[in-house]
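hey so u asked for the seq, here:
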Amino acid sequence: GLAIGSSGSMLYRIAEAQKAGAQFFEEVMRKGDKGFIVAFDTEPMMVQRWSTKVSALHAGLAKLRAEESTALYDAIVYALYNFHGIRGQKALVLISDGKDTASKFTYDQALEYARRTGVPIFGVGIGIRTNESDVRYKLDRICRETGGSTFYIDQASELQRVYDDIQA
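ran it, structure tokens below
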């Protein structure tokens, strides 16, 4: 699954993130695999349901528009819920450029839910500065405690390197 921030702060990065997301699905998906896309601003929304077709995932990415605030914790819970009853190898790639500003769920609730689902989260922080230690700590912890990892990049053009690491 791919959960991608589409808040107003992503305005200048959204096109690069869409392109990198499309490349990720093209390279990672094998015959029989399926994926979904959740976008999140003030609330998470399904932009592409589970599909085995890369073309459908591309169409989902094309629908993204950057606006409003960031409901990061709600997006984590919403995206992970979509794995319920799904068999096989699972992973959630979470792309965000900042801290939560709009969630109904707290960080602790999202963390507990993430732990219980057993789906590794691979967090990609775009433009999160090193002095934003609270934001980095929370993202690092939720990824580490689910068996995933965190990557920090300055521009969406660096996503290709991150996707290669995640695939490996």
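DSSP finds six helices and six strands in the chain. The helical segments are 14-28, 54-62, 72-81, 107-117, 133-144, 159-167.
lmk if thats what u needed
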